[in-house]
Amino acid sequence: MKIAIVTGHDEGPTKLNAFDNALSNAGIGDVNLIKVSSMLASNTEICELPKLKAGAMVNCVLSEITSDTPGDEIIAVIAVAIGEELGCVVETTGINKDNDEIINEAKDMVKYMMNKRDVEIKELIVKYSAATVKDIASVVSSVVYLDNEIIEG
């Protein structure tokens, strides 16, 4: 199994536009995202995001938050733990909370999921997007499940 981990942030004139702009900033704005639960196959490989076919149906784990309150501090976090037998992904968000606290929460959750399954973590990756809201802002972090049918070219 191959995945890409992406993050993005942006502002927009409406909450929907800010979210759409953040998706585009992350490189996943021109596809249809299908939210899936948080499991990975054994020895999952992390890759750079390739160019995706416009309109493709793309499985992902998505962390996102949008705010229209100027001055809000927003963060979207993805944590990925990979083991030999399987892997787990968690997503979480925060608004006006300490970023380190939210990041550590994500790490703790994914470690718990792996421990509960008696799977040793070989690799732990955390990615996040954070922003201070000017007018209307959105941040996204996502694990994108890759297969040849959704990749352009």
What's the helix-strand series? EHEEEEEEHEE
Question: If you average the pLDDT, what whole number results?
Answer: 97
What's the story with the biggest beta sheet? Answer: 5 strands, mixed
CATH topology: Pyruvoyl-Dependent Histidine Decarboxylase, Chain B
Q: Which structural class fits the helix and strand makeup? A: alpha+beta
**CATH top-level class:** Alpha Beta
Estimated share of beta-strand residues: 35-45%
Helix content: 10-25%
Q: Supply Rg.
A: 15 Å
**Looking at the structure, what is the overall shape?**
flat
Can you name the CATH architecture? 3-Layer(bba) Sandwich
CA distance, first residue to last residue: 19 Å
Number of strands: 9
- CATH-assigned homologous superfamily: Pyruvoyl-Dependent Histidine Decarboxylase, subunit B
Number of helical runs? Answer: 2
Strand arrangement within the widest β-sheet reads 2-5-9-1-4
Poorly predicted runs of 5 or more residues: none
